[in-house]
Amino acid sequence: MTPPAALTRADLGIWLINLPRSADRRARMVAQLQALGLDYTLFDAVDGRAEWERLKSSVDLPAFRANVGREVLPGEIGCYHSHLGVWQALLASPHKAALVLEDDVVFHDDFLPALDLALAHADRWDMLKLNKIRAKFPVGQGALGAYRLNAFVGSFTGMGAYLVTRACAQDLLPALLPIRRPIDHALDRIDLRHFRHFALQPFPSHVDDGNQSTITGSGFAEVKKFPWYRRPRVYQNRLGALIAKGSHLLLGRIITPPAPGCTRSDR
Fold first, then answer.
1. Are 190 and 197 in contact (CB under 8 A)?
2. 9-250 has which fold?
3. Quick one: which of 60, 67, 79, 230 is 20 to 30 A from 36 by CA?
4. Backbone angles phi and psi of 47, in degrees to 5
5. What's the pTM value of the predicted model, to 2 decimals?
6. How far is CA 93 from its chain centroid?
7. Would you state the pLDDT for residue 256?
8. For residue 17, is pLDDT > 70?
């Protein structure tokens, strides 16, 4: 993928992912976006529960169980397809990059300056997270003004607010099906994907779902991992991924943008 030159908000499409039934969340996000003066497109989230019979053929269930150590949640498959759907909308648009938002984001006072700074340096990243769920063991990739660009050897998950370039979305889309992990875990395998998946820190936003997730339920009640003795392959896969990802980062291979079509098959 070829990094774009400096971008501005005029080059940016903004998509807000929201389940139509989640009216309260939508109202909170709309109020925040209007206060920031950001025009957006509402993207109706894929309802994994309602559409499970259609979606389940896109999941490699044995691989998912081996990689994650539990049964798949229909809501996370809907989430996965929602993000892919936004990327497809980006490719069908004239925009050079997308700001993708889930409906539980809280914007900080510095969000707009951070956004403009990130766009002005769009040649420095392919996907840039503006908040996180987990971000462990950073590996510095330089600075943007008062912010740091970081990659992570450990888990780097969450899809609440991020920037993705058109070229990155186009390159990644063919490699992300069938589904073998939640989407943020799949994107965390940068040793397979070979793209610059960074964070802008300090993060200019955070997520707050009030402990009422439309995917995992209240207090993660729907997440039921297999007993430890049924998860030996999970531990093996995680150790292998940590080694591969760490080697990829620490050898500096992430710094140079890859050639088009460089993503490798997942497992």
1. yes
2. Spore Coat Polysaccharide Biosynthesis Protein SpsA; Chain A (3.90.550)
3. 79
4. -85, 100
5. 0.92
6. 20
7. 45
8. yes
